[in-house]
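Researcher: Here's the sequence for the chain we discussed earlier.
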Amino acid sequence: MTALLASLLLAGCAQEEGYQETSFYAMDTVMRFQILAPQDSGMGDRMREEADQASQLLSAVDPESELYRLNHREEESFEASPELAEVLSRCLQLCRETGGALNIALYPVTQAWGFTSKDYHVPDPATLADAMGKIQWEEIGLEGNLVTLPAQMELDLGSVGKGWLTNRCVDILEENQVKSALLDLGGNIYALGRKEDGNSWRIGIQDPFGEGIVCSFTAEDEAVVTSGTYQRYFEKDGKRYHHILDSETGYPVENGLESVTVILKDAFVADALSTACFVMGLEDSAAFRREHYPEAAMVWVTSQGQVYYTENLENRIQLADGVEGHLVE
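Model: Thanks. This is the structure I predict for it:
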């Protein structure tokens, strides 16, 4: 779901002695890990194993995954594993907290637009109306590990899946005394510690309108997750339709934003909030962040190419040449 330009970082550390590089395809994206560890540490293999397990748990399209089995259950109730129940519990808390801006029941609408099958199209009104009748996340029941859903409801955990996996990978690295790593899970970034030379990592946010970046900032022991209109979209009759959908209308969100980036230690929350805050828009998400997550740093890129950023980035951010920046109090 998210895309950050991390190449400037990876190029800077790939040649440093001691960094082991692992890359593989998982969760519908290419993942790259730069880990400061001995050659025989096996950390790269552990990251791949965790990614495979995450897919087996959270994929909505893999018939072998637990989420797929939940979505295609024969009964309204489903006995989930402790891991899936934990993910759902955290998601429901965030759905409530964001007032439904995060909606894990939106899958039927996503399917109606062809974003799951890559058969992109504008759904006809009847199809969209039918899908909209199946997305009431408030009707999801969770008691212990027992999940209860209305008959035709299906869930999509794509807004948190890579965040959940990131946290798992970071836990493993820390348990094995890894002090420095850069994780790129298809654009979801985690900067663990500092680089081997003692400097902080520097992360760049992609320019939604072309090549390069709009800004960069230092990062240390935190996730950086972006949701943007340019990550997945199609064009029809001269109009662009992106994949971030509004639960109120069933159509792609149109609020003057092109991307929202959340910087936070908890990658799961950062992943969820990048989507929810995009849906909220600039003013409402800034107010939400002040009330609920003041420790989070955020960057918004508008349709006019302006960059807005929170006060806790003021001494860390560097704008690209020609980019207009604004501080959000």
